[in-house]
Design a protein that fits this description.
- By secondary structure, the chain is mainly beta.
- The chain has 1 helix and 13 strands.
- The strands form 4 sheets. The protein has a 6-stranded mixed beta sheet. A 3-stranded antiparallel beta sheet has the order 5-11-8, with no helix packed on it. It has a two-stranded antiparallel ribbon with strand order 1-2.
- The chain is elongated and about 100 Å long.
- It starts with a strand and ends in an 8-residue tail after the last strand.
- The model has no long low-confidence stretch (mean pLDDT about 85).
């Protein structure tokens, strides 16, 4: 989006004719780019058996990903209820909370490519013997580098039903 302001004149008083000669006009163009928010891609609600980790990946058809049309670097916060999260890799990430391995919550920053590589294979390990509803939440902030406005963010939550294994009855 551009804002154009055209200033022209001859230095004459207002009672004199307006000068429209383009050779004596000055033009000032101010570029103002609006920052686009990042977009998280998350799967539908998930199900895993008691004491069985759930892996989020493209291969499993339940990948978590991050996109941003105007920022190459993002900050991501992952958190889980009733379980722990482990990234598939740490290359190119810098952590301000957690370390990417068996964390209930972690915050890290990196390029979109490095963040998405770490998320592809993210593992959620339910708390031992837990049965019920757990959640995995992802919050992404773009740091505002893609525009002249403040940073934008996106937050999504994935529900994970942790169920009991169907064992044969004991007599």
């Amino acid at each position: 989006n551009d804002l154009a302001i055209i200033i022209s004149g001859t230095g004459h008083r207002a009672s004199q004719a307006y000068d429209t000669d383009p050779t004596r006009a000055a033009q000032l163009v101010v570029n103002y780019t609006v920052n686009a928010a990042p977009v998280n891609t998350v799967p539908a609600p998930q199900v895993t058996a008691l004491d069985t980790p759930l892996v989020f990946s493209t291969g499993n058809g339940n990948a978590i990903g991050v996109a941003d049309s105007d920022d190459a670097n993002v900050s991501v916060t992952l958190s889980a209820t009733n379980g722990l999260l482990t990234l598939s890799g740490l290359t190119g990430l810098s952590f301000s909370a957690g370390d990417g391995g068996a964390d209930a919550s972690m915050t890290f920053a990196g390029t979109l490519a490095n963040v998405n590589a770490a998320l592809n294979g993210l593992q959620f390990a339910p708390t031992a013997a837990f049965q019920g509803i757990a959640t995995v939440q992802i919050g992404t902030t773009d740091l505002g580098a893609g525009g002249t406005s403040t940073p934008k963010s996106d937050t999504d939550t994935i529900t994970v039903e942790v169920g009991d294994v169907n064992n044969a009855p004991v007599n």
